Amino acid sequence: MLTTAIAVALAGIVGAGAAIGYSAEARSANAAPAPLRTTAVGSSGADADRLLMAVGWGATCGAPARSGVAGLKPGLQLASIGMTAEFIESDPPLYDNLGDLSFSITTSQPLAQRYFDQGLRLAYAFNHAEARRAFRMAQRLDPACALCFWGEALVLGPNINAPMDEGAVAPALAALIRAEQLAANATEREQALIAALSERYAADPPADRASLDNAYADAMADVAARFPEDSHIAVLAAEAMMDTQPWNYWEADQETPRGRTEAIIALLERVLAAEPDHAGAIHLYIHMTEASVTPQRAEPYADRLGALMPGAGHIVHMPAHVYFRIGRFRDSLAANIAAVQADEVYLSQADPGGIYAHGYYPHNIHFVVESARMAGGAETAVNYAEKLHDALSDSVTREHGWLQAIKAAPYFAHAQFSDPDTALAVAEPNPEFPFVKAMWHYMRAVALAGAGELSQARAEAAAIGTAAGAEALEALTAAGLPAAQVVAIAGHVADARIARSEGDLDAAVDAYRAAIEIEDSLPYMEPPFWYFPVRQSLGAVLLARGEAVAAERAFRQALARFPNNAWALYGLMQAEKAQGKGDAAAITEQAFANAWIGGRAGPSLDRM
Fold first, then answer.
1. What percent of the chain has pLDDT over 70?
2. Which CATH number applies to 535-608?
3. What does the H/E/C string look like for 387-403?
């Protein structure tokens, strides 16, 4: 049910074709201050010393700092849970489950080399807070190690999932300046990395970091050209370029590369040709290709990734970004269950807080729920939905509104799998979270429609649109969650379920088509912002209306979006049987049997 509030918030979004977030092209073109220039690399001039004194080298880098929200991007939607706010100085263990990637540095201490390697591996795994701890430990072991300080400065910067935290500016500069002071005794490639990183930071950075990020990317591209055989430098250069256009690598056709995409992919493919087990390169390559029309080109690398760093939950999870796109939902499920287990072992040993505990870990649980749901694994989906609910506290969600997208996921699992009594017994969420509340009403509308309680179902459907006003929806959209669109889809789908329950199939078709129009405008996200392809619901109603040919088309369109989706395969099989296509139906039935992990009875067309 599309309310005025949703309609207002949707204005200018649907049909715009632009991803939520910002791109390199969309950023302000205003000139930014030049990056900090202290002294030449390798010197220890007075300006550098004054800055070290101002920020307090020994204390500031380990002290809590204020977290700042600098705007969010698509993708994991993890930005703004600041790393520096939770950083606690302590001696980290040497983990034995992060693989064997190594970058030889100038140091007199073998243990410093080991901690540096651990920091780099963790940086590749996007556990930047733990990487910082490792680099800091390497500094304590060898205070003369230039690249140990460079590593800390590196991981305090922005990445594709998070802008640079305000509290990271001073410690990043301090670490960089110390690296510059120590660079005289470093190798040529180490000096090149330090010099390139100096382009990334400024003492008083502008709100729009585009000029700094682009300068760093250009510098790293030059370093990669100077050292073409160095895989680590190539991966670091690729990531620097990715950071200039996070989650914005392809045009709307998902085929035409944007910005630096071709150069990034060329660098990563060069590394993978020489080192197919480079976990950092594989991680980034998956991100570069997942939203394209050919995500399967990362598949052979995804198949090997999890075993390369079994202790890094995010790395173990990453193959799922390929598997989910190409329809390997069983493998996506297995990868994410393993990732959740790896994270829980790690979180029992460390307390990184911030983005890892409150972003990456719940993301893996969310992926379990969605992978199980696509394959029909009701028990797994509902059980992990409860785990997901417990993993995201109200306090964290209150600070970071975009987490409402993940916090609402349990209601989708109940809507799809739970009986009406179970769904209706789910407690009402905190009213502070309007998007979550709207999805709770959606779950209840679907449950009541299934139970034949149509008047109550209509009341819940109406509440979907009134749970959040236009202002709240706009705020969530600005934070990276296309809330108005998703709430509108939920309203239309609820209306369709109610119409079908009362036998008005024409109204159900109209409502599903309205939902599909909005669904098609959603930006890319894994798991998707809307939890299933609405075309499979349309196909089920068309089949019930006796339009098997149109139903087959709808199911095939759903499968084009989510290949090997067991629900759509089942619907396609029924549509083929209704047309007397016995041979085709037999092939589809086998594909369904391979994809479905639910009960023998298979899915119900009423629940599609």
1. 85
2. 1.25.40
3. HHHHHCCHHHHHHCHHH
